[in-house]
Amino acid sequence: MKTYAVKASDIERDWYLVDAQGQTLGRLASEVAKILRGKNKPIYSPHMDTGDHVIVINADQIVVTGHKMSDKMYYRHSTYPGGFRVTDLETLMQRHPTQAIYFAVRGMLPGNRLGRQMLGKLKIYAGDKHPHAAQKPKALEL
What we know:
The protein has five helices and six strands; from the N terminus they run βαβαββαααββ.
């Protein structure tokens, strides 16, 4: 027996469509991250991007439990003095409804150039329309 080493020519990428309506943010993000990494495939290899493309629709209709809408904070800093900014989840969902899913999935992927490559295969839309009908995405029930 020899260990199977996946080659770039062996990777076949599929397209999946995920409806986020009524889904919990963290549980949705963990399933999407698993598909983006390719952990649902038998050819998974941690040093290669073996994952598939994921389209998330209805991102503005996600659900969180407890008081996370007002208690969960997103932090950023411009690197200038006084450039620290804090936004809660409720404000983020009103201004940019796709960003909550983006930040959640990004936190579950590797923090290197391979993770950025995986994140490029994620498409998030606030409504139920998307421009990827030509790829014939498979509907994924989570």
